[in-house]
Design brief:
single chain; Jelly Rolls; two-stranded antiparallel sheet; 17 strands; binds calcium ion
């Protein structure tokens, strides 16, 4: 018996706000036409109440053959007992592809279970602030009605007893982003309670708030009391400040590897020209120069905030540094925003 805790989160918005989360990193989706199954590329695991066969809409099920995609050369088997390219597999909801036509193999589906559910295990506790859901687009719009997002650390009742948010309708093939004050949890469940239903999810994305806020900061040197933590105190009137030196840098250790979607930098309110030429890097190396470059700040007005898209770069560290001699690095604020689920490179299908 499922017991539903109907505690509502404080939603900021329940609407499609895709423009607030530019997805510039997705060009690889249309460039790649092979299934590049690699467990190392995803930090999450997913499971659902059952693996469905999309009964009731056979016309969309590629002759009912779940292996239909394999024969077209779009997928490569890497495990005999499990193939993430299965039509309807739970993994299809985190393959980084919002393709909403079920037959193209990028959607999960359960059987017509009572209280069908899907769960992603983030493998660690995160402060989740946003979940986006992409509904199936080729049919069956109403099957997702009444869906709940549940976030928490319990696997009681398969994680479906964690705190719940009831989200509004998601039109055919649409992606809706649901935002709320952060909820701490390792498991994110989606469940359609109270009826026998097929749960189809063409993409689920889970986001956390500024990951830098719980990281550890450091910088190449401290000028007076202007330590590296001043870039994360929420105050524009405080800023970090290195000595005048060669190649000054600031770094935040996120403590976990993120796929970084964007970095925000707020310049100090005076002497803002000092930031010109600063380089933003993402990666896993303490040697800052081994990390990949996300962006170079050509110029940024005094006190201004700029957002830099990093295209899902993976890394534990975000570094800002200024190449050259006789440089000073000052940052009023910094933010790192990343993916926790979704945007993996598994099982790409032709789009
Ligand atoms: Ca998908
Ligand atoms: Ca500050």
């Amino acid at each position: 018996m499922v017991h539903f805790n109907l505690t509502l989160y404080n939603f900021v918005s329940i609407s499609c706000v895709r423009t607030q989360a530019p997805r510039i990193s997705r060009s690889w989706l249309i460039l790649s036409q092979t299934c590049e199954f690699s467990e190392s590329l995803t930090g999450v695991s997913v499971v659902q109440s059952s693996l469905g066969h999309s009964q009731g809409d056979a016309e969309h099920a590629v002759d009912g053959n779940r292996d239909a995609n394999y024969g077209k050369g779009s997928c490569t088997h890497t495990k005999a007992e499990f193939n993430p390219c299965d039509l309807g597999a739970a993994q299809n909801a985190v393959d980084g592809n919002r393709q909403s036509s079920y037959a193209l193999g990028s959607c999960s589906v359960t059987n017509g279970d009572m209280n069908p559910w899907w769960r992603v295990d983030l493998l660690d506790v995160y402060r989740v602030t946003r979940v986006s859901i992409t509904n199936r687009g080729d049919c069956c719009e109403k099957r997702i009605e009444g869906i709940q997002i549940r976030i928490g650390n319990s696997l009681e009742n398969n994680g479906n007893n964690n705190e719940a948010a009831i989200v509004g309708p998601i039109p055919l093939g649409n992606t809706k982003i649901f935002e709320f004050k952060h909820v701490k949890g390792r498991y994110v469940n989606l469940i359609v309670p109270g009826r026998n239903e097929y749960l189809t999810l063409c993409e689920v994305e889970v986001y956390s708030e500024n990951a830098a806020l719980w990281g550890k900061t450091s910088q190449s040197s401290n000028y007076l009391q202007s330590g590296p933590e001043l870039a994360l105190d929420g105050l524009l009137t405080s800023w970090t400040h290195t000595n005048t030196e060669t190649n000054p840098w600031w770094r935040v250790d996120l403590l976990k590897v993120y796929r970084v979607n964007r970095v925000t930098i707020t310049n100090r309110p005076g002497n803002g020209l000092r930031i010109n030429g600063a380089v933003i890097r993402i990666g896993n190396f303490l040697d800052i120069y081994k990390n990949r470059i996300c962006a170079v700040i050509s110029t940024l007005a005094d006190g201004a905030t700029a957002t830099f898209s990093c295209g899902g770069m993976e890394g534990r560290y975000m570094i800002v540094h200024i190449p050259g001699d006789q440089k000073i690095l000052s940052l009023s604020e910094a933010g790192v925003y990343g993916y926790l689920a979704g945007n993996s490179k598994k099982c790409l299908v032709k789009t």
